[in-house]
Design brief:
alpha/beta, Heme Oxygenase, Chain A, binds adenosine-5'-diphosphate, binds the ligand Cc1ncc(COP(=O)(O)OP(=O)(O)O)c(N)n1
């Protein structure tokens, strides 16, 4: 069945407004006012797997804050292994698409990619002459990396003519060679010389791409941006990856999206190149296809669509939270029936715990990426050693007859040692894991503080009034919120694997919190060493 047979009946085209009046009549924008985003059009072929062509262009536009539009030159059946077939709807239909856009929408920049054949190239050239968009970027796509031609050989001359209508042309080395009618350059200086010749012949600024070279760097260069002999080189480390499908499409689209908001090609190219290097690094993790996969156009927005870390972490420990809330130790502490010996055991272990917790807080301060976080964790380390331990010493001195030396030499129980070992292990990992492991001590304590305050009611005469009000202290709740925000910030930049390690560290610390409270009633001790020769 032909495409024409299935096409819906189109409404009569809206008559074109007089040139120069579109900006004044577009919805929501008063005459002369700047629209909120540049309106950028891609004229290109398709890639149903989303890595190249108009699909890549639209992602690159969005990644740079532009409003994307797309007109299709060719429908390409391709995937990460290569191109299978190309269907070209034809130059007349291409012109209809182009006019449908330009009759209605003010276009701030155009990016042209695969034109497919000569009639299409001529239709685009005629439309460009008619509409005269302010910025035209041409990526002279000819051959896919898989080796499949994306441009008829007869169309090469027509593409040379398109170059003269473009403001910026972005050839890779083989495309540059075709455009100047020479052999492909194999060195960067030879490629630059060819780019200069192309600029001299066409007048277009040339963004020469060095992706096809080898070496530590993948350089690009703008030739002719500020005058005939001007060359600006943009260097970036060569990313060791096979996932480079659509890099040329994405780079040229990003430059087109940025140009309307920049004062020249240099600034737009510099930012686009930096973005592309990040997108190349993150491409493999997308796991799209089994061949040469695409780049990650959203690599600079790693948390987009993800739940906030602390929300997810809190949901994960729902079971531990409920268990802590309903445990005997917490109930007895709230109603004041907890035996002094049990509380004394718990508090002595808490003093031993705080000595190690303070070390891990210092480690978090050392690893922290910002001065605010460094200060917060360093302050917390001092606080847990000086202020909190002094309170423990006072109570244990008064109720258990323990002097300072006795409190400081308390042997950690197996439960306390397991918890602090876990914290130290996490602090051998990243800052993000360390903060995640530290967080439940803040959060579960302030949570239980609330529960205790509510359950205990009037604290007058309550044997544990001082402790209950300490846990419920608004300053402690505030510190908990700050610690949460540092964990969320760290998670924002974490890879999926690191985020999972953070969640696991948080979950394990929560389990240790439960066991820590529980030991107030069970008072666990280390087993005696087995006597030699004991029966098996
Ligand atoms: N492995 C890589 N590491 C870093 N940048 C790369 C890599 N491969 C390509 N690039 C960059 O991607 C962009 C497209 O380059 P290139 O591969 O030459 O063009 P095309 O995709 O049109 O063949 C350029 O900015 C180039 O420097
Ligand atoms: C529809 C379409 N347009 C262009 C290309 C080529 O993309 P490019 O960025 O040059 O990357 P490669 O995938 O060829 O390396 C394409 N494949 N499809």
């Amino acid at each position: 069945m032909s495409l024409a047979a299935t096409a819906p009946v189109l409404p009569t085209p809206t008559p074109a407004p007089a040139p120069g009046t579109r900006g004044a009549t577009e919805h929501g924008v008063s005459p002369g006012a700047e629209p909120s985003r540049p309106r950028v059009l891609s004229i290109a072929g398709t890639d149903p797997t989303g890595g190249a062509g108009i699909q890549a262009d639209l992602k690159a536009f969005a990644a740079h804050g532009a409003y994307g539009m797309a007109v299709t030159t060719a429908l390409v059946a391709q995937n990460t292994h290569g191109v299978r077939t190309v269907h070209v709807p034809g130059a007349d239909f291409l012109t209809e698409q182009l006019d449908a856009v330009s009759d209605d929408v003010t276009i701030d920049a155009v990016k042209i990619g695969m034109v497919a054949d000569e009639p299409n190239a001529r239709a685009i050239a005629a439309w460009l002459r008619r509409v005269q968009p302010p910025f035209v970027v041409l990526d002279p796509v000819m051959v896919a990396t898989s080796g499949h031609r994306l441009l008829d050989e007869e169309a090469e001359q027509a593409v040379r003519e398109l170059v003269a209508l473009a403001d910026l042309v972005t050839p890779n080395l083989p495309e540059l060679a075709v455009l100047v009618g020479e052999q492909a350059a194999t060195t960067w200086p030879d490629a630059l010389a060819q780019a200069r010749r192309l600029h001299a012949a066409s007048g277009a600024v040339v963004l020469l791409k060095g992706g096809h070279l080898t070496g530590e760097e993948s350089p690009d260069a703008l030739v002719g941006a500020r005058g005939p002999d001007d060359v600006t080189t943009f260097s970036a480390p060569r990313v060791d990856t096979v996932h480079t499908h659509g890099t040329g499409c994405s780079l040229s689209a990003a430059v087109a999206a940025l140009r309307p908001r920049r004062d020249g090609w240099e600034s737009a190219t510099r930012d686009a190149k930096t973005w592309l290097t990040g997108a190349l690094r993150a491409g493999g993790a997308l796991a799209v296809g089994t061949g040469r996969g695409p780049v990650d156009h959203l690599a600079h927005l790693p948390t987009l669509g993800r739940q906030v870390f602390s929300e997810e972490a809190w949901e994960r420990i729902e079971g531990w939270r409920e268990a802590v809330e309903s445990m005997g130790f917490v109930r007895a502490l709230a109603d004041g029936s907890l035996a002094v010996e049990d509380f004394g055991f718990y508090l002595a272990q808490d003093a031993a715990y705080l000595a190690e917790y303070s070390r891990v807080l210092s480690r978090a301060s050392q690893l922290a990426p910002t001065p605010e976080a460094r200060q917060f964790f360093a302050g917390a380390a001092v606080e847990s050693l000086e202020v909190e331990q002094a309170l423990h010493r006072d109570w244990l001195g008064e109720h258990a007859g323990m002097d300072r030396g006795a409190v400081e030499s308390v042997d950690p129980s197996p439960v306390t040692a397991a918890y602090t070992n876990h914290l130290h292990a996490a602090s051998n990992g990243s800052y993000a894991e360390t903060v995640a492991a530290l967080l439940p001590c803040y959060w579960l304590y302030s949570y239980i503080g609330d529960v205790l305050v509510r359950r205990a009611g009037d604290l007058d005469g309550h044997p544990y009034a001082r402790w209950i009000s300490l846990y419920g202290d608004p300053a402690f709740q505030e510190a908990t919120r700050t610690a949460c925000s540092f964990a969320d910030e760290a998670a924002r930049w974490a890879s999926p694997a690191e985020r999972e390690r953070m969640l696991r560290a948080f979950e394990l610390s929560s389990m240790h919190e439960y066991l820590f409270f529980e030991q107030g009633l069970t008072r666990p001790t280390w087993p005696e060493a087995p006597v030699g020769g004991a029966e098996k």
